[in-house]
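Example (one chain per record):
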Amino acid sequence: MSALDDPTDANLAPSIADAPAGVSDHLIAAGAFSEGERNAVYRAIETRRDVRDQFRSDPLPEDLVRRLLQAAHSAPSVGFMQPWNFILIRQPETRERVWQAFHQANEEACAMFEGDRRAQYQRLKLEGIRKAPLSICITCDTTRGGPVVLGRTHNPATDVYSTVCAVQNLWLAARAEGVGVGWVSIFHEEAIKTILGIPEHVKIVAWLCVGYVDELYDMPELSVKGWRDRLPLDRLIFEECWQDGEEP
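Predicted structure:
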């Protein structure tokens, strides 16, 4: 009998003993990944990029799209609420209507910057909605799970936080699959809701442009193009309490 099969094993006995009846059947060993598996996880995290313009037009295989959605659906959620839905948009006509809504908002955003910053903003290419063969609108149903959700009683925004976890899962899975993802956030939510027929109580969390890419930047594109650099981690870590200092 192996250690995994032996309920008297020192590493497993405490958790099994404390588990409610029947739950112990679902417990598995919580060991570290192999070095190769760990490296793959960290590589996906460190090389994930927000793709703005470099999409190929060839469609993604359905089984690959399903894997990405399954990864997103495996995200943690407050009270196991699973508040997300995934609206897949492939039709060029729909994507063009969304691009028009984006374009209007993007012009408004551009006007908020001044001088060189505005010119720099205008040079950024944001063409994923038109170029990527697939867009995924990820939403958050604020009513799912009923009026009282475990863990959400004192912070109702945790349903949105949960949905963002689903976005990140999809993004990392896409990186592992050689698929690029770009997150579009510049639009008026009501405009997109009207186009897609999304109910009032459902929030749009992310519009993702998804497609194959041949190349990725070796660092975030906004850093490459001089918009903003990555902050040093040490300036963001506090011990025990908030620490005043230079604003990052």
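Caption: The beta strands are 84-89, 134-141, 179-184, 202-212.
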